[in-house]
Specification:
This protein is of the alpha+beta class and 308 residues long. It contains 9 helices and 14 strands. Strand 6 and strand 7 form a beta hairpin. It is globular and about 50 Å long.
């Protein structure tokens, strides 16, 4: 590691300690293990990203999952297979949870992460969404990417979101800061909800869709603008580097959020549920932001609209 790069990591570690590592009681793996995890996560993400980029014109829908708005293509399982094989080739004893392993629906998703956390002899769990933003991918929109995270004893310690369309690789190691293409990133500096660019989803499930619709008239008059980009991974990464101020969603699975949650925390932001409890792998209602007053104003606005 170069001197300048080492200095950046040291500064990032100091800056992120109060918002990230200080909040977990899990003893982190040694630095050389974390470096190896990051290397494999990055390599797996880039390989999957290359597959996505090679099919960037769009893809045929293999089937719908929960409903006609929740799609699966032939490329999703191919990307997941590539990530899995890359991981297990280096860490054959580690456990792995991919979106395509799990039946559709929030109950199955919640049960899957519960089962993995309850029985994991290696203490390491890789969590991946092979193509986050599948609907965007199907329609040839360059807003889709793999999201890969590693949890150790239930705590996310490594996260990688690789955007193949823009050649941007977002990485984070717990306690060592967040980076985009090896450059340190920080959340935005907005201090008022009126200056905030807030992202949210257009979810396929009816309950979540209704909550999103209820949030619009509550949030839109208060924020600068709202964006719906169709990829949780992208929106979380963009909160981490300040392009967005916040991103909230009523119901997401662990593979949607794990990598991005670490990026936001390591970039100095807040990652919580809608009651302002720190996010964990079982959390489904999420808000990630630059923290502080803006975070609380968003949560309060959602609560006033009955979204809790």
């Amino acid at each position: 590691m170069s001197t300048s790069r080492a200095d950046e990591v040291n500064k990032a570690a100091t800056a992120s300690s109060t918002s990230s590592s200080a909040e977990t009681s899990v003893k982190l793996p040694p630095d050389d293990v974390l470096d190896a995890l990051l290397d494999v996560a990055t390599r797996a993400s880039v390989l999957a990203g290359d597959i996505i980029l090679g099919n960037a014109g769009g893809a045929d829908v293999l089937k719908s999952k929960a409903n006609s708005r929740d799609l699966l293509t032939l490329i999703d399982p191919l990307c997941e297979k590539t990530i899995r094989e890359t991981v297990l080739d280096r860490f054959p004893d580690h456990d792995f949870l991919g979106e395509e392993d799990v039946p559709p629906g929030k109950e199955a998703s919640a049960a899957a992460i519960d089962a993995k956390l309850a029985n994991n002899p290696s203490n390491y769990l890789w969590i991946c969404d092979p193509i986050d933003g599948t609907t965007n991918f199907v329609h040839g929109m360059p807003l889709c990417m793999p999201s890969v995270a590693v949890a150790y004893r239930g705590e996310v310690v490594v996260g990688v979101i690789h955007d193949p369309h823009r050649g941007e690789t977002f990485t984070a190691v717990r306690g060592k800061g967040a980076f985009m293409n090896a450059e340190l990133i920080r959340v935005g500096g907005q201090s008022s909800i009126g200056d905030a660019i807030v992202a949210m989803g257009s979810p396929p499930a009816v309950e979540s869709m209704n909550m999103s619709l209820a949030a619009l008239p509550a949030l839109m008059p208060k924020v600068r603008t709202i964006r719906m980009l169709g990829s949780a991974a992208l929106m979380l990464a963009w909160v981490a580097n300040g392009r967005l101020t916040a991103y909230w969603e009523y119901d997401l699975s662990s593979w949607d959020v794990a990598a991005g949650s670490l990026l936001i925390e390591e970039a100095g932001g807040s990652m919580t549920d809608l009651n302002n409890e720190r996010w964990n792998l079982r959390t489904r209602k999420i808000c990630g932001s630059n923290g502080g007053k803006v975070h609380m104003e968003i949560l309060e606005t959602l609560a006033e609209a009955g979204i809790v």
